[in-house]
């Protein structure tokens, strides 16, 4: 007879693990890490992705430093960076691939969004 308690394992979950709402490429993660190491990001714990009504076609993406966790945000970690997705943006960005592209004339985050029904000519806004 032993008084030691046996380790109790949690039963396996019947729910499948949900896939991440967006895919962050290694290139995007590298750039996010660079931004988070800058002085203006001091104290930031990640970035916050949102959408805002503006531009020619309705919605555009917003990226801001995240200095705290909001329980309403969807949080994901990929390639050692944390991205918080605002609740109002989640429906519009599910399935999106976020990348960072650099060439001799420009550098920018790009969003390949399968939910987008169209984009404006300048590429600043989209419709879902």
List strands and helices in order, with pairings.
Elements: E1 22-24, H1 26-36, E2 46-53, E3 59-66, E4 74-78, E5 81-85, H2 87-93, E6 96-102, E7 107-112, E8 118-119, E9 126-127
Parallel strand pairs: 1-6, 2-5
Antiparallel strand pairs: 2-3, 4-5, 6-7, 8-9
In short:
One of its GO terms (cellular component) is mitochondrion. This protein has 128 residues and is mainly beta.
Your description of this structure?
Keywords: 4Fe-4S, Iron, Iron-sulfur, Metal-binding. Residues 22-124 form the Core domain. Belongs to the HesB/IscA family. Residues 1-22 are annotated as: Disordered. Pathway: Cofactor biosynthesis; iron-sulfur cluster biosynthesis. This protein is mainly beta and 128 residues long. It has a single domain, classed as HesB-like domain (Hypothetical Protein Aq_1857, Chain: A, Sandwich), CATH 2.60.300. The protein is 14% helix and 36% strand. It is built from two helices and nine strands; from the N terminus they run βαββββαββββ. The chain has helices at 26-36, 87-93; strands at 22-24, 46-53, 59-66, 74-78, 81-85, 96-102, 107-112, 118-119, 126-127. The strands form three sheets. The protein has a four-stranded mixed sheet with strand order 3-2-5-4. Strand 2 and strand 3 (59-66) form a beta hairpin. The chain is globular and about 60 Å long. The model has no long low-confidence stretch (mean pLDDT 83).
